[in-house]
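Practice problem 4.
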């Protein structure tokens, strides 16, 4: 049990630095009001930010971490899931291409894919859907908005984006 507690503590102590996950993007390339926007298709509320860019632009890891999974799912299309510092999971979706693989250690700003419109973004403007969530609930984040109880698992990525 002590080993598990030590591992969890170390995860929280790891330094966390963020970068804009789309090369060349700025705050002009996303809408600051889309996190937890309702209504939003099958997911009910939008639990991330869409960063619009030219198809094929590089997507870089916004933080250092460990690639838990990379592949294809129905809604997100080509995606990458990275476990970063503070036990936060970084989800990159709608990629055109994936340039990393599962079970890989990556550094902040490593190229991990390219902007696309895969999954349920097919036929829409190319963009990166970027979400940050935690398996450790932040109970104080719960509110009365639609699906507000789920806020304990999601952080607003816009608060962390840097140009």
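Answer key:
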């Amino acid at each position: 049990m002590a080993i598990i507690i030590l591992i969890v503590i170390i995860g929280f102590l790891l330094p966390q630095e963020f970068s804009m996950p789309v090369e060349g993007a700025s705050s002009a390339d996303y809408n600051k009001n889309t996190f937890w926007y309702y209504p939003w298709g099958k997911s009910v509320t939008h639990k991330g930010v869409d960063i619009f860019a030219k198809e094929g632009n590089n997507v870089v890891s916004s933080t250092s971490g460990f690639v838990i999974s990379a592949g294809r799912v129905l809604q997100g299309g080509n995606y990458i899931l990275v476990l970063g510092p503070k036990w936060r999971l970084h989800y990159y979706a709608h990629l055109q291409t994936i340039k990393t693989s599962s079970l890989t250690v990556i550094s902040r700003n490593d190229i991990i894919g390219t902007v696309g419109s895969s999954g349920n973004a097919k036929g829409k403007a190319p963009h990166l859907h970027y979400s940050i969530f935690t398996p450790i609930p932040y109970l104080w984040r719960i509110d009365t908005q639609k699906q507000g109880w789920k806020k304990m698992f999601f952080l607003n990525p816009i608060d962390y984006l840097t140009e």
